[in-house]
Write a structure and sequence with these properties.
Length: about 140
């Protein structure tokens, strides 16, 4: 059974040596997003992207996130997020792209994925080479 504590290692094992392959990571993340995680009531999935200066250098962040709500003794404790993040040089094409889409705003997870995949903010980076990827 997948738990919040082992979700990161579980996803990393599913992705294996393909962590730099954005399309592969996305498809693996989509399948992972539909899997049951112990204690999870609602699936909260986020797709976000945009140019930010978190490190002193402007970079384009392309990020898939699964958010978990943690409970202790059936009481809310905190939120945890599992990110699949790709970084790109902030070229002109990417500087105009920014979006934040939550799965909870859609009737079901498949509708959410269809919408995300239709966005220019999603399509354009798929044609580019990222400079870094990480799962955390």
């Amino acid at each position: 059974m997948i738990t919040v504590k082992n979700a990161e290692s579980y996803l990393k094992s599913k992705i294996g040596e393909n962590a730099e392959d954005l399309k592969y990571v996305w498809n693996t993340f989509k399948a992972f997003s539909k899997e049951k995680v112990e204690g999870e009531e609602d699936k909260e999935i986020l797709f976000q992207c945009g140019v930010y200066d978190f490190t002193g250098e402007e970079l384009f962040y392309f990020d898939f996130v699964r958010q978990f709500t943690a409970y202790e003794d059936n009481d809310y404790s905190h939120m945890e997020q599992l990110h699949c993040e790709f970084l790109f040089k902030a070229i002109d094409e990417l500087k105009k792209l920014e979006v934040s889409e939550w799965s909870m705003d859609y009737d079901n997870i498949d509708e959410f994925f269809i919408h995300v995949e239709s966005l220019q903010e999603f399509k354009l980076p798929l044609r580019l080479q990222s400079i870094k990827s990480q799962i955390y």
